[in-house]
Amino acid sequence: MSETPGIVVMGASGRMGQMLVREVQAHPRMRLVGAVERPGHDWIGQDLGTAMNGPATGLRVTDDPLEAIAHAQGVIDFTTPETTVELSTLTAQARAVHVIGTTGLSDADIEKLDAAARHAVIVRAGNMSLGVNLLTQLTRQVAAALDADFDIEVVEAHHRHKVDAPSGTALMLGEAAAAGRGLDFREAYVAARDGITGARAPGTIGFSAIRGGDIVGEHDVIFAGAGERIVLRHVASDRAIFARGALKAALWGQDRMPGHYSMLDVLGL
Predict the structure, then answer these.
(1) Number of structural domains, the chain?
(2) Is residue 84 part of a domain?
(3) Residue 93: which H helix or E strand, with range?
(4) pLDDT of residue 191
(5) Which residues are annotated as a binding site for (S)-2,3,4,5-tetrahydrodipicolinate?
(6) Domain check: are 134 and 222 in the same one?
(7) In this structure, are 15 and 116 located in the same domain?
(8) Residue 1 pLDDT > 60, yes or no?
(9) Which of 6, 112, 178, 263 is an S-S bond match for 125, by CB 3.0 to 4.6 Å?
(10) By percentage, how much of the chain surpasses pLDDT 70?
(11) Secondary structure of 94-155 in HEC code, one letter for each residue
(12) Is the Cβ–Cβ distance between 146 and 223 less than 8 Å?
């Protein structure tokens, strides 16, 4: 592995994109070799540093991911499902590590990522933070330890600009709870309730989503029994934790065998 692998940041103008740019630039073991935005974006052709209201970097923002990825060993991608699937073909051809923080991926999307992962390393997670991935493991263990008399609910809160619900992290936690209980997650999943819903069905996992203000990310997994509740909680106060986790994944993936990995693999959990 190169001591300083070249990294491309997709969606460089977004809040997470700019955070990733800054974290890569500050990292002693990697270098920023590409910043990509969608065609027609105001940043296209501009110096990245100038576009971010800082000093010039000599790196211009492009709308051509193929050109950027050709010179990279890693691609960090917090974009959209459609974009992520398209990029997976390019990263597979370049044998670049594709770190995916995109949420809202469908089963069909994931099948396409699995196909790309036969040729290159993909690290995909609904959340890149250490704390959330520890919470995922705890959720699975608690779900396995408690019997079906404890109902499971996942409550998540994010900023007003988030477009998908429940969050990818909430779904990841729900999947962990289902695995701990030995349930089929798709059958156990219950979205936000409204109206006369009737009594709670046994063996289900409920979800509630809150959207407002500048909430970075909060997740509660509630195990509610008769006379007691267990609540597992993670609160993110700085989205830099997600960026740092993504960088850790990009370094971890260098010289790995092709495959579709998660942050649990990266963290040895």
Answers:
(1) 2
(2) yes
(3) helix 81-94
(4) 93
(5) 159, 168-169
(6) yes
(7) yes
(8) no
(9) 263
(10) 99
(11) HCCEEEECCCCCCHHHHHHHHHHCCCCEEEECCCCCHHHHHHHHHHHHHHHHCCCCCEEEEE
(12) yes
- Binding residues for NAD(+), as ranges, are 11-16, 37, 101-103, 125-128
248 is catalytic: no
Catalytic residue, from 98, 158, 219, 260: name it. Answer: 158
Residues 53 and 102 in one domain: yes
What is the C-alpha separation between 78 and 103, in angstroms, rounded? 8
Q: Among residues 27, 41, 112, 162, which one is catalytic?
A: 162
Q: Is the pLDDT of residue 149 over 80?
A: yes
Query: pLDDT digits over 92-127, tens only?
Result: 999 999 999 998 899 999 999 999 999 999 999 988
The CATH number for 212's domain is 3.30.360.10
What's the pLDDT at 257? 97
Cross-strand bridge partners of residue 36: 10, 62
Q: In which domain, by residue range, is 185 found?
A: 130-236
Report the binding-site residues.
11-16, 37-38, 101-103, 125-128, 159, 168-169
pLDDT at residue 246 above 60? yes
User: Residues near 62 by Cβ (< 8 Å), separated by ≥ 6?
Assistant: 34, 35, 36, 37, 44, 45, 68
Does the residue 1 lie in any domain?
A: no
- pLDDT tens-digit map of 157-202: 999 999 899 998 999 999 999 999 999 999 999 998 999 999 999 9
Query: Which tokens in the block code for residue 127?
Result: 């959340």
CATH number at residue 84: 3.40.50.720
What distance in Å separates the CA atoms of residue 137 and residue 177, rounded to the nearest whole number?
Answer: 9
pLDDT at 256 over 90: yes
